[in-house]
Design a protein that fits this description.
alpha/beta, 2 domains, six-stranded mixed sheet, about 20% strand
Length: about 170
């Protein structure tokens, strides 16, 4: 193959790769920015029957470490189970772009919302009386049985599934 033709083919391949890369990022989810009242409404909705709500932040290493456990539940598409990841990044940095880039880079498929509340001491008790405010924190809610479980620590592999079974 002549060098000029090879160079043209390589240029086309690079162009197509670049377009695909930007297209994939363009389709990554953008997290909705919500207030406390929206979050409380989300927690009270009875559909889906089982709701897993995880409070996390991009700067929290234990939070990031446990995200695959929630992603596994989302990927399994268990009927009647929904995962919502509540980012608390806006508390320290009002620019959501860091979270959007994180979601795209990690290919997060679970529903993500950014909580836009700047005074944690004013709202944490409204989420759960057991919560000290430490991250990560997870709440499991079974709307059919009325059972609710607060987990104020980082989860280990397999724990989330066990907590879900106990919520039945």
């Amino acid at each position: 193959m002549p060098p000029l033709k090879a160079a043209v083919i390589m240029e086309k391949i690079l162009f197509i790769s670049g377009v695909l890369c930007f297209s994939i990022q363009g389709f990554s989810q953008q997290a909705e920015i919500i207030k406390l009242a929206d979050l409380q409404h989300l927690m009270e909705e009875e559909s889906p029957p089982v709701h897993i709500i995880n409070f996390w932040a991009t700067w929290c290493a234990p939070c990031v470490k446990e995200l695959p456990f929630f992603e596994k539940i989302t990927a399994e598409k268990q009927p009647g189970v929904q995962v919502t990841l509540v980012s608390l990044d806006l508390d320290l940095d009002p620019n959501p772009e860091k979270v959007y880039r994180f979601i795209a880079r990690k290919n997060i498929q679970s529903k993500v919302v950014l909580l836009d509340e700047t005074d944690p001491n004013a709202w944490i008790i409204k989420i759960d009386s057991q919560w000290s405010g430490a991250l990560p924190a997870t709440i499991l809610i079974n709307h059919q049985t009325g059972k609710r479980r607060f987990i104020g620590k980082a989860l280990e592999e397999g724990e989330l599934e066990r907590f879900l079974e106990g919520l039945q």
